[in-house]
Design brief:
Elements: H1 2-16, H2 20-34, H3 41-66, H4 71-77, H5 81-106, H6 110-125, H7 132-150
Helix pairs in contact: 1-2, 5-7
Length: 152
């Protein structure tokens, strides 16, 4: 029953913070629980991230499929400093996602803080939830910086 109240609280937070993604996700999960379909929760947990990343990737690749991005645009990317910065940014993001995955495997209870932090970022900073891997990757960088600074 505690989980139900947390979901209701997330619905309220999503409504107050005008975050339809949080509100919808919490509503769907509450409905799944209330109609006694909890057996699907492990599948949602296991495959939800993959499906979310699939749809995110589809949305990002639409300009290629629709023809708005041409081969010349790709080659132009390599001839501008902004394109190179974007390439480096994508590389760093993928690296951080990998480090985040390692952190979550080593310390799975960290997901609680990452989820609450992501919700705070969505509600208060109008952020976009793209998954716990990047949040965990950034956490790794912050933890390493703290250890370096404190000498631990």
């Amino acid at each position: 029953m505690n989980g139900d109240w947390v979901l209701v609280a997330l619905i309220v937070i999503g409504l107050v913070g005008r975050s339809p993604i949080i509100t919808t996700a919490a509503c769907v999960l509450l409905i799944v629980k209330l109609v006694h379909l909890q057996r699907f929760l492990p599948s949602i947990e296991r495959r939800g991230l993959e499906l979310g990343l699939l749809f995110l990737t589809l949305a990002v690749l639409v300009p290629f499929a629709s023809g708005r991005v041409q081969v010349k645009d790709v080659t132009n990317m390599f001839s501008s400093w902004i394109g190179w910065v974007a390439l480096i940014g994508g590389t760093i993001a993928a690296y951080l996602n990998g480090k985040g995955l390692d952190l979550l495997k080593a310390d799975p209870q960290m997901i609680v803080g990452l989820v609450i932090g992501s919700i705070a970022g969505i509600v208060f900073l109008r952020g976009v939830p793209v998954g716990p891997l990047m949040a965990a990757g950034i956490t790794v960088v912050i933890l390493k910086a703290i250890h370096l600074f404190l000498g631990k």
